[in-house]
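Readers of this paper often ask what the protein records in our data store actually look like. The remainder of this section carries one protein's record, kept here as part of the documentation.

:::
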Amino acid sequence: MSAAKKAAAAQLFAEGLAHQRAARLDEARHCYERGLGLDPGNPDALFLLGQVLFDSGDTGLGERKMRAALSVRPTAGNYRGGLAISLFRIGRFAAAASEFAEALRYLPGVAELWRGLALSSAQVGDAATTFRAAAEWQRLAPSDADAPGVWRSAGAQLAYREGLKEDERGCFESAIEAYGRALEFDPLAVAIQVARANLLARMGCSADARHAYEAAVAVHPDNAAAHFNFAMFHLDEGRRLDALDHLEMAARLDPENGLFATHLLFQLMHLCRWAEMEDLIRRVVAAIEEDSADIPPFIVLSMPGTTPRLQRKCAENHSRRLSRVDAGSPSKSVRVRRPGRWRIGYLSSDFKQHATAFLMIEMLEAHDRSRFETFGLSYGVDDRSEMRGRIGRSFEHFLELSAAPEIEAVERIGALDLDVLIDLKGYTEGNHSEWLQHRLAPVQINWLGYPGTLGAPWVDYLIADAVVAPEASQWMYSERILYLPGTYQPNARVRDCEPATTRADEDLPEDALVLCSFNQTYKITPEIYGVWLDLLCCEPRAVLWLWASNPWAEKELRSVAAHAGIAPERIIFAEGRPQAAHLARLSLADLALDTFPCNGHTTTSDALWAGVPVVTLCGEAFASRVAASLLYAAGLGDLVATDAGQYRAIVKAWLSDATQRRRLRAIAAEFRGQSPVCDNRRFVRNFEDQLASLV
């Protein structure tokens, strides 16, 4: 190139740079392109032209020009840094971080490059790189006020993630220590405060947990998540009204959050504060339909207005959020079965003084050990009760998994080489149904604890009967239905029962017709309670005997009754008692009234065992058909209604006909005597035959 051309090109490049610095991009581009026409191999001009094109909106061509310059000068740190800044400005943070890191290989002492690496790495969630880069940024530019904040935030994130990892592994003390370090970096980080509080609560450190929650909501009074988690803690501690206050605050702060609305609704159902529920129900339904929140399927079973379709969609939404492994793949279940007895595992946290144990103890004891090898897989608290010991003895093997992290628990269960794994919890409180996604047995079954579908691809069958889940209802369930004759529910014939009490002992009128419902108050809807009150109006001798599961619901139910003209002494509340004491008083009732849309399950069984007939309203969904299943099996199918009018008519007929009352009472009295419902040897033979046919 001649000296004249070179000088002319240099002049154009200088003019282009002046235009570029003055943001006259079109003029700068014109100068660079003319100069490159004279000096086409000039990498500086090529790179500057690329920057101008990039900043003018032609990012693709601009990036290509800058990279072409880099191909000529690959060690030019200033080129790398310039490209990184351009990429950062248009939000290509991962690419920007890569270029900043490459530039720092050649220019490690430039604070601006460490700043860019820290900020771009923060945008892509690379806390480790952010932390390291921000430390260098601070060292090289100690007067830059932004560097310390970025460094502290990244340090907090690193420690927080370590805490989450240790928490998941079950290393709780290490997790608490990591959360503490995270809060040293960022004392006001609400997510870290709440995670630490949640773990303290799970560790049983209630006082420390409460202090941590209080600190979080004090510093962040407008943080809905902090209020929600504090509410869940209050519920676990038995402070329902405190929980309600924080749930209401969470729902006000984040009215679009379906999860907050669902838990607030459930507490209002427990408290029988029905006037406030309508809007919440709409929000819950919308959240399920839009799959915008992880709505607990159990709550939806008893929600007024629930439907089978809504319940299945909610369960499927929930199972997708649980899914972390490809556990539904059929190939996971293919194996060569070793010879010998069928190996059956029962998974639950309720092998203790619990309704599930009361129902199935005789059935477990009746298993044919010449054909079946049984495993109790317990992740619940050992309550040291007689029932706990009896349950443990009913299994050939009993594994305690309550302290095991998930990875250890699934490894131990997987090593058992089970043929069938039966989940007795489903989506009830404290469950670990998510363990089944690891395909712990070739056949995995949902049974007894959860009255509905789990919506999970890793659960193969649902055990039911022709009443609780008719063949035409298969569409309601993701599982294939496995039918038992009679009823799907086992029932112990011999149960611990204290000596009978008297009506005087229970504050019941001696000459009254006692209508009872010992279901939890969340199952009582305004519609069904309205039917009960109408029945009291029709029969002056009748009283209503309910379980006082909480004093605030008692107050609300009395108030509603008073507005209906029912004298307060006709609504009688019974205190909670251990099972043996409860069964002793149950026979004082004349008739049990079932709830809807979620029936009494063990509650219905208890009433029939005590010789008390039950009137039920049978709906479409599994949870609204359980009592009907038991009643048909017990020979009391004429007490099953299909709408509220028929329900009312059945009870009215019973109230007015003493002969009918005696006849139904006599049939109910046979439940624990001659009824096939309590024939657990027959039940377990049918049960075993069905299991063997699957493997």
